[in-house]
Structure formats: structure tokens, C-alpha cells
Design goal:
Strand order of the largest sheet: 1-2-3
Structural class: mainly alpha
Mean pLDDT: 91
Distance between the termini: 34 Å
Number of strands: 3
Helix content: 40-55%
Low-confidence stretches: none
Order of helices and strands: HHEEEHHHHHHH
Number of helices: 9
Length: 167
């Protein structure tokens, strides 16, 4: 995770969202719609639903601690909330329609350096891994991305390795 990224993130909500994007390369839309029931702290996993597919994140200690902090805060702040989404706000926690957090709300709750977004953090994380490994299969397994997406990142990171591949 880029140094100082969490310095201005004053809420457990913001810290968890930033970690999911910057460490695990989770798209902002999936962070918004992740379900609390899919977070298993005892196993250290978060399952992301991608249509008919599922992608399991194995949380390292840092993100695990941030997820536990968020759940503690959420339960203390809204103990009767039945909203199934992992991230909730004052408005969505008690809404009987159980909506996910909106895109605008996510932007307002996050304090990111100018020019940074969750999706930009995600792209940077995948590109960093592509530079480090150059292995599209590892990118696919680690981030749950498609082979085409993995190859685009590897090609960007290592154009010399892919210039002679057939298109």
C-alpha cells in the first residue's frame, strides 16, 4: 500500500475500503456491494460475488484487523441493523430496503489524495504485481481477474516479453 495512504482516513469505514482496493485490488463497486455474511474473520476470508462466480480473498493481518475494527464499530453504532452489506452508513444501516452504499457516499467517506480513487488504487496494485511477477496466472488467481485483463497488465508491465505473441 502506498505510504501515507491511510494517514487521512479517519474512519474504520474508510480504512477498510482503502485497504480492500489498495491491497487486494477489489473494484469500488464490489467494495460497495460486499456482504457482511461473506466476511469470515475466523477463516480470514472475504468472498466476493461476481455474477455466478465467486472470488475468495485471503486477508492478511493488516486487512483482517481493519475488517474486525469495522465490524466492531458497525455493531456498536447500529446494533439492530439488518442491512446485509458489509459497509453501511448512518442512512443505509437502518433503511428497510437494505441498499448498498452509493458511489457518491463512498467518495464522500473516503479521504484520498488528490487524483486518487479506489479504482485507481486497484489498478496500481495489479500493475505493481504484474511488474513484480510478470505472471498472468498469478494475477488471475490473486485478484480474480480474467485472462485478457491479466495479459493487458503483463503487457503493460513487460512489453518486451509480449511483443512477439500472436494477436
Amino acid at each position: 500500500m502506498p505510504a501515507g495512504l491511510l494517514d487521512h482516513a479517519t474512519t474504520a469505514f474508510a480504512r477498510l475500503a482503502i485497504a480492500l482496493a489498495a491491497v487486494h485490488a477489489v473494484p469500488a463497486s464490489e467494495i460497495r456491494t460486499a456482504l457482511a455474511a461473506d466476511l469470515n474473520l475466523s477463516r480470514g476470508t472475504l468472498v466476493l460475488r461476481r455474477g455466478m462466480r465467486r472470488h475468495t480473498l485471503y486477508l492478511e493481518e493488516f486487512t483482517h484487523r481493519l475488517a474486525a475494527d469495522w465490524l466492531t464499530y458497525r455493531h456498536r453504532r447500529w446494533p439492530t441493523s439488518v442491512n446485509p452489506h458489509l459497509l453501511v452508513t448512518q442512512k443505509t444501516a437502518l433503511d428497510p430496503d437494505h441498499p448498498a452504499v452509493g458511489r457518491i457516499t463512498m467518495q464522500l467517506n473516503l479521504v484520498l489524495p488528490k487524483g486518487r480513487t479506489l479504482d485507481k488504487l486497484r489498478q496500481d496494485r495489479i500493475l505493481d504485481e504484474a511488474f513484480a511477477t510478470g505472471d498472468p496466472l498469478k494475477l488471475m488467481r490473486l485478484f480474480g481477474i480474467t485472462e485478457d485483463t491479466a495479459m493487458r497488465y503483463v503487457t503493460t508491465a513487460h512489453p518486451e516479453r509480449t511483443t512477439k505473441l500472436p494477436r
